[in-house]
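== Sequence and structure of one protein ==
=== Format: two labelled lines per protein ===
==== Data for this protein ====
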Amino acid sequence: MSILSTREAAMRALIEGSTLVDIPYHLVPRFRTWLADAWQKRNNRGRMLLPALADPVSAVLSIASLLLLSAFGTVVSLANPYLVAATVMGFLYGICSVLGMPALGAVTQDVVHPRLKGISWGMTMFCMYMLGGAWSPFLVGGLSDYLEGGASGLLTALIIAAAAGLLGGLCFWLSSRHYPADRAKVAHFQIEAEK
């Protein structure tokens, strides 16, 4: 059995045994990895430009979805075109919000000495959770209470939190200017097997 036919059989099995929600769950990671690699082949800043584009797009989709739901989403029905649009935008937000993650994982490994790759990855995860994931629910809750409380305050707080994606995109774009030089500094090191 050839590799191509093995892949085709695996894809058929994936699609046949999946629901509509499962298919993007399995296909998006493959797509985002391929997209990051393809962009890197065409542009030496490609791995950093992918999250620089994906973060602001996901922020805009999230804000638009939240605004549509708040303005027109009171009637829960597929006949409500605004609810359908907000749901589609929310789905696309979910894809765009994780689109740059493989590229960022590769970047953390591209710019460090081979002996520091594990530490680099560990510090990336630590900083990601300590600078964002750990306290962001408290920030959104505090902003919600400070603004107005209730659904209106929560909506405003979520929009402010989503707008941080615009700042994230700017930071990724700025760092993309230094990525090729940083990568070149460690390109001559070789990974050696343990003895």
